[in-house]
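Quick note —
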Amino acid sequence: MQWDDYDAALFDLDGVLTPTAEVHMRAWERMFTDFLTSRGVSKPYTQADYFAHIDGKPRYEGVAAMLASRDIELPHGSPEDSSSEQTVCGLGNRKNELFTQVLRSEGITAYAGSLALLDHLESRGVAMAVVSSSKNAPEVLAAAGIADRFPVVVDGAVAAQRQLPGKPRPDTYTYAAEQLGVPSSRAVVLEDAISGVQAGAAGDFGLVVGVDRGAGAQALSDQGAEVVVQDLAELIGDR
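Predicted structure written out below.
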């Protein structure tokens, strides 16, 4: 990896910097298992559903995609819906409550390899930003003790405020590069989700790196990752 060719690294958060994907997956499983059981749906929620319909997408889009996979129609509702309401937003809010409960009770630790790469890039003067579909990104970064490493965080709340389309569109990554003052062609996108590498491939970025945390190396490559690693420490080129 020749970091001299790039001026910025744009990181997805969940599954790339921190194992929050595991927390998200547990929260999604609990929420959808309870919901599908209450509806008498015979086909249960599985981990494959997470990667096929939810991974990397904004929360409500993930809910809608999962419901569509079971031919279930619900009103969209609004973000202010309570977690008990039978709407897309209500289910999404219930999942968020479960995620927050787990995060606060168990905490989170960044991947060792990711911390090593952050140290390496900082020493080289490479600008860094986090680009996450989750509105929980600031809380996760704080819980992991790495919030001060990122002067720019483009999360779900920023995307909504700026009316930026979410992944698989490239807009949030492009905006992050702009905020760092770096041309997108000099920025590297690092993603573990199919929708995330699609976002990188759809933009004018210097490189798209897939991090295989379960989506599959071939699937990430097929959707636009030019390099696929299992751990970010593999990207420390001069070790």
